[in-house]
Amino acid sequence: MPQRRWRFTARFWLAAVLLGWALAHAEPSATGEVVFIAAMNHTAPLSTFAGDRLEAGIVKDLGDALAARLGLRARYLGQPAKRAPLALRDGLGDLLCYTRPQWIGPDFAFTLPVLANAEVVVARAEAPVLRRLRDLQGQRVGTVLGYVYPEVDTALGDDFKRDNVNDMTANVRRLLAGRSPYVLADRLVLRDLQRRHPSLGLREDLVINQFTAACALSPRSTLSLTGVNAALKALLAEGEVQRILDRYAPPPAR
Questions:
Q1: What are phi and psi of 227, to 5 degrees?
Q2: How far apart are CA 203 and CA 229, in angstroms?
Q3: What confidence score (pLDDT) does residue 254 get?
């Protein structure tokens, strides 16, 4: 009997410790929700907006899965690109996902990298194949106003002929309409276009840079970076992040 009582006590103690850790790391919000700042400069498949409301996309699906793992409800607050990090800094939301210190500055805590992507040169089927960035010399290249492309600037200098539009959605539309033979875009955007418009024969001719984006945590959030990272690690280990990516932007068939 004493031994059985000790086993029960040990199990009870371990359960209490685990429960306390979970409450400390995964139940930080008195309202039972986690608020995601949603940057409105993203296009499909990363984000699809109706006005300022995030309706679908990789960023939303990741947020929904992360919130569920934390035992919280997800809520999204759409913000213009330049306003998004300020809203996060001011505590209007807990997390801004799909970002990097290079994009919004180092004044936040960043989670482990979770969404792999690359900046690429997308070409239409009829455009000559590019072998190097110098092959874009003198070509009109679809770009987004306000975006910086340091690798292309370095390679081409004054020969980088930018053809700016206001956002990535307009850049994609111009490519689909045949008004630009080449545009600079994300690999995930290209894969989504290849899935939805296979007859166009769009190509990834050059990789400008590769990266894996993370989530930024507001300094005013009661969420624990340790708890968020643990949840993201579980989503990665279970294959949920890859399933989200494959749902919107599967690798092209070989």
A1: -65, -40
A2: 35
A3: 63
Q: What is the pLDDT of residues 230-249, one digit of tens each?
A: 999 999 999 999 999 999 98
Count of domains for the chain: 2
Comparing 3 with 222, the larger pLDDT belongs to: 222
The CATH code of the domain that includes 104 is 3.40.190.10
Show the domain range for 44.
30-116+212-248
The predicted pLDDT at position 123 comes to 96
Q: What is the rounded distance in angstroms from the CA atom of residue 101 to the CA atom of residue 62?
A: 19
Helix/strand/coil for 100: coil
Longest dimension (CA), the chain: 86
Sort 31 into a burial class: Cβ within 10 Å, 0-12 / 13-18 / 19+. Answer: exposed
pLDDT > 50? residue 10: no
